[in-house]
Amino acid sequence: MKRILHIDSSLFSGDGVSSTLAGDYVSRLLERDPQWQVTHRDLGRDPIAHLDATRLTAIMTPEADRSAEQRTIAEEADTLIREVQEADLLVLGVPMYNFAIPSVLKSWFDHIARAGVTFRYTAEGSVGLLEGKRAVVLASRGGLHLGQPTDTQTDYLATMLGFLGIDDVEFVYAEGLNLGDDAREQALASAKDEINQLLAA
User: Where does FMN bind (predicted)?
Assistant: First the structure.
C-alpha cells in the first residue's frame, strides 16, 4: 500500500493558503488513486515541542536507562520518524514567516533527523537513510521571494530533505499573496496550474 505523509505548518491550521493547496493536492491524488493511505499532521493545531536539552537527552539516553518522562518523549520522536520511514510521498504545506519556515516545521525536522536512523555519518560525509521517497512542497508567501536572497526556504528544505536521503523534491509556489487582490488571484491560479502539471506528470 502506498502512503502519503501530509504535513501542514501554517499558524492558521487548515485555513492557511499553504494548507489549502497541500490539501487540494492530496485530495486530487486520492481521487486518481484511492489506494493511497494518508497520515496527516497539522503542526499549527498540534505543534511538536521545540527541541531542548530535556528532549534531546531523553532521545539520546539508551532505552533501558530512560525515565518514564524520557520514554514518553522518545516515543513521540520515534512515532514521527516511523511516519516518515513508512511514507512513499511527503506533502509539505509551508508558509513563509519572516523569510523562514515556521518554527513548528523546524521542530519536526529536529525530531526526525537522528544519526543512525534517518542518516548516518561515513568517512566521506553524511548519508541519508530515507531513500526512495518523493516530496512535494506547497509554499505560500505574502511577497515575491523566489530566486531572491530573502528566499531561505527553498534551499533549506531541499538541503534538509536531501540530507535525509530525499532528493526527489518538487516545489509549488503561491507568491505575492499580500500584494493586492489581483496579485493574490494570480498567485493562486499559478499554484493551481503547477499542481495540475504535477498531477499530469
Answer: 10, 96-99, 140-143
Q: Which residues are documented as binding site?
A: 10, 96-99, 140-143
Binding-site residues from annotation for FMN: 10, 96-99, 140-143
* Helix, strand, or coil (residue 127): strand
Is residue 7 within 8 Å of 124, Cβ to Cβ?
no
* pTM recorded for the entire structure: 0.95
Helix, strand or coil, per DSSP, at residue 10: coil
The whole domain housing 60 covers: 3-200
How many separate domains does the chain show? 1
